[in-house]
Specification:
alpha/beta, four-stranded parallel sheet, de novo design (two linked rop proteins), Ubiquitin-like (UB roll)
Length: 389
């Protein structure tokens, strides 16, 4: 079956023998594979949803046999678990994708960039690598990605590997022009690379996506869903909303809050979500139960995102902190008109003013909260200790 998690039980890394027995050997694709990738319309699964084929074309154009393939398994989004699960259970699918990229793009190096806290995933990837042939093994080095939200951004990954500092850098130059050690670099999420391995075998992607269902459900965790699966279907596979759901956060911390009733019928498919002005992002679907305070929830996430700024760009560092403080004041002391007005004004001051997308993602999230929870933000009262517990 053409799916990412098909195969043996998801209890540990699949061996090379099992993987090759199930899917056959890695296909020997050449430069024309890029056309297949473009036609497949596969989009990146690390968050930005950028078409993989376009990225490969750009790296191929710049490669002089010296390109670098950077396998992004940082998974810095706190609620996301899908990249970890994929690396821990189907490491050879990810490695196949990386080695196919290396062959097609004439890369001399493959870098595994895996979150330092994702120990099982790192161990599984290294165990799988040890099973590969020497030519493949010689291409690879492994780097532990620092456990910071922005460390997973592509320029931060390149910066870390080149200079040991996991902070984003200004683009241009883009990774396909000057990436790791100044070489043209393909940065690709692990799920995207696993899809590449399937496209190379079957000519098309699986048509499925990995999503993490988080928050108020009895069985939070990772699901592989078809493009026809709705958010309601996925939440019911996770045991259904445990409390009456108030809202759903679609796409993780850079995503958007929606009224639960509006979210249920939406299909978990990048194209379909885009037509509703949404993004699948890193695939997190967070369910907010009716009993939880949306203002406090939003303030908590804004504080986290403000704390994760790499403090290099003023509007991001000071702006996100000011927005988080205003949200926190409303959450802790109740609504005041000045802070509400500041939230509207300051989001506009922050948007588009950072070297990376961190502040933009945070203000998209905040604006969706102000829209979806307008009533609660306009009339918030501080919670008593008993309510807050
Ligand atoms: C602040 C920030 C954090 C990010 N964190 C991750 C991450 O943890 N993992 C990831 O794959 N991509 C992450 N991304 C997206 C990467 O910059 C990049 O777009 C992605 O790795 C490219 O692979 P893809 O096209 O296959 O999605 C992040 C982006 C930003 C702006
Ligand atoms: S926008 Fe924020 S997170 Fe991105 S580089 Fe600037 S300070 Fe760092």
């Amino acid at each position: 079956m053409n799916s990412l998690l098909a195969g043996p039980p998801l209890t540990g890394p699949e061996s090379l023998a099992s993987h090759a027995g199930r899917l056959g050997p890695m296909p020997a694709v050449g430069a024309r594979f890029i056309d297949t990738l473009v036609q497949s319309r596969i989009a990146g699964r690390g968050g930005a949803g950028f078409p993989a084929g376009t990225k490969w074309q750009a790296v191929a154009t710049h490669s002089r046999g010296d390109a670098v393939v950077l396998v992004n398994g940082a998974e810095g989004e706190p609620q996301s678990k899908k990249d970890r699960l994929l690396m821990s259970t189907r490491p050879h699918l990810v490695l196949d994708g990386a080695f196919i990229a290396a062959r097609v793009l004439r890369a001399r190096r493959v870098i595994l960039y895996i979150g330092e806290r994702h120990r099982a995933a790192r161990a599984a990837m290294l165990q799988a690598l040890a099973e590969r042939n020497e030519t493949e093994r010689r291409l690879v080095s492994e780097h532990a990605a620092p456990a910071r939200y922005v460390a997973g951004a592509e320029s931060a990954a390149i910066h870390f590997i080149t200079e040991g500092v996991a902070t984003p850098t200004t683009m241009p130059p883009y990774p396909f022009e000057r990436g790791v050690d100044g070489k043209p670099t393909l940065v690709q999420n692990v799920e995207t690379l696993a899809q590449v391995a399937l496209i190379a075998r079957y000519g098309e992607p699986s048509g499925t996506s990995l999503v993490t269902i988080a928050g108020g459900v009895p069985r939070p965790g990772v699901l592989e869903v078809e493009s026809t699966t709705t958010i309601a279907d996925a939440v019911s596979l996770a045991g259904g909303a445990s409390d009456q759901a108030r809202a759903v956060l679609v796409g993780g911390y850079f995503g958007r809050w929606m009224e639960a009733r509006d979210a249920w019928p939406l299909r978990l498919d990048q194209g379909s979500l885009r037509s509703h002005g949404l993004a699948l992002g890193c695939g997190v679907i967070g369910v907010l139960p009716a009993g939880r305070c949306p203002v406090c929830e939003t303030a908590g996430i804004m504080r986290y995102l403000a704390g994760e700024s790499s403090a290099q760009c003023g509007p991001c560092f000071f702006g996100l902190r000011a927005l988080a403080d205003a949200c926190t004041r409303i959450a802790e002391h109740g609504t005041n008109r000045d802070d509400l007005q500041r939230l509207d004004r300051w989001t506009e001051d922050v948007r588009g003013r950072g070297a990376c997308r961190h502040p933009d993602g945070a203000v998209i999230f905040l604006q969706s909260a102000l829209q979806t929870f307008g009533r609660e933000f306009a009339g918030h009262r501080p919670h008593s200790a008993a309510e807050a517990a």
